[in-house]
Amino acid sequence: MKTIIEPFKIKSVEPIKFTTVEDRQEILHEAGYNPFLIHAEDVLIDLLTDSGTSAMSSKQWAGIMDGDESYAGARSFFRFEKIAKEITGFKYIIPTHQGRAAEKILFTILGGPGKYFPNNTHFDTTRANIEFSGAEAVDFLTPIGKDTSTIADFKGNMDIEKLEQFIKEKGRENIPLVMITITNNAGGGQPVSMDNIRKTKEVAAKYGIPLFLDACRFAENAFFIKKREKGYENKSAKEIAKEIFSYADGCTMSAKKDALVNMGGFLGINNDDLAMKARNILIVTEGFPTYGGLAGRDLEAMAQGLEEILDEHYLTYRIRSVEYLGEKLTAVGVPILQPPGGHAIYLDAKRFLPNIPAHQYPGQSIVCELYKTGGIRSVEIGSVMFGKTEKNTGRFIPSALELVRLAIPRRVYTQSHIDYVIESVQEVFNNRSKLPGYKITYEAPMLRHFTAQFEPIKL
Ligand SMILES: *Cc1c(COP(=O)(O)O)cnc(C)c1O
């Protein structure tokens, strides 16, 4: 088989600024050893997130100029609505400025104290919006999804037995909807199988509960189904995506992922009453229902992105480029969460730095070293993000996993950029015995990872 190539030519380029190891040592120190506080222009390869960082196509850029900026009933809205309806089949498509705005509207209507929302794994903004309403967000990830080293096809699946037990225990009247996140971002970008989506729908329907999808990466998930699930090998990614959505009663979507735009999102709904309530909130918080917090040009770019995302040459390249990074790192012995997900590689910091205890943040140590060595920005997803110190005892409670995420922006970096990333990670891995632990010198009361300051612990 020949090399899978980037299925595009580059027509516009953005230079990246080069810095030296000494520069970066200084920059890191200035930023309190927190890469969120580094200026983006001091980053050589930015793998902080795949959200809103996609490169748009020439047709999307043409759409930016062509967008209809009419307040009501813009042509760009109807183009966007048509393609979104074609893929999802939902009766109502309500545009929002990003995914969390769709979540905010949905959970303002359906949430509140005494309510529960099950999911395979809630993403942090989904959980935050549910909890903000006073309701509880609960995760029912399949047990194998919690094991970082076993290779399996669908580690993002819902644990259906646990879900049904929970519905029986809490009562269907207290569960306004069941959600599935595709792919499972918080669980390593792992896909969910069609069989699991169908069975989750069956259980939800048995109790009269609607099923919603957190559909941010629906195209990547559809492609994994094509590659891995029996009976789907000859179906197109678009047919598979349509079947996925056919089991759902609605969705929240961040277009910053699989709609290939820098800003945008939507809420898809079938129920008339729920859609009316959602539109009423939308008008107060986002805007008129035919633009919902976006400019006409954004809707145009989003419509075009939805046209492009299910292209199988694109999806083949996308999934392969993430897998390639995972494969090469595994080959040189770097421990990663297996198998590679759809949008990112997660380094397993516990196995990478077994000598640094969780309370000295091994993931943060790798993040800092990777920036210093290669100018690469990644993010810790471990005890900096999720660790807690018990108030009364002062006892440190670590995160279950210590991970470093290397998220791959869509259509942005070429294979030589990725080869450079591989070389840099390998260099950090070879130096691993010399890496220090870190201590926190400042932290905010909530979501501390964004603004915390650190210091290396002298060896
Ligand atoms: C990014 C993301 C969201 C939130 O979307 P924003 O556009 O960032 O508000 C929700 N769920 C998942 C799974 C995501 O990856």
What does the model show?
The strands form six sheets. The protein has a five-stranded mixed sheet with strand order 2-8-7-6-5, with helices on both faces. A three-stranded antiparallel sheet has the order 9-14-11. Strands 1-10 form a two-stranded parallel sheet. 40% of the residues lie in helices and 13% in strands. The protein contains 16 helices and 16 strands. The longest helix is centred in the C-terminal third of the chain and has 20 residues, at 312-331. The chain is of the alpha/beta class and 459 residues long. The protein has two domains: 21-50 and 311-456, Aspartate Aminotransferase, domain 1 (Alpha-Beta Complex); 58-308, 3-Layer(aba) Sandwich (Aspartate Aminotransferase, domain 2). α8 crosses α9 (237-246), α12 packs parallel to α16 and α14 packs across α16. The model has no long low-confidence stretch (mean pLDDT 96). The protein is globular. It has helices at 21-30, 58-66, 75-88, 99-110, 124-132, 160-170, 194-206, 218-228, 237-246, 272-285, 296-308, 312-331, 349-352, 362-374, 383-386, 415-430, and strands at residues 45-46, 92-96, 116-119, 136-139, 178-181, 211-214, 250-254, 265-269, 344-348, 376-377, 379-381, 388-389, 396-397, 403-407, 438-442, 453-456. Pyridoxal-5'-phosphate (PLP) binds at residues 51, 98-100, 123, 125-126, 181, 185, 214, 216, 254, 256-257, 265. Pyridoxal-5'-phosphate binds at residues 51, 98-100, 123, 125-126, 181, 185, 214, 216, 254, 256-257, 265.
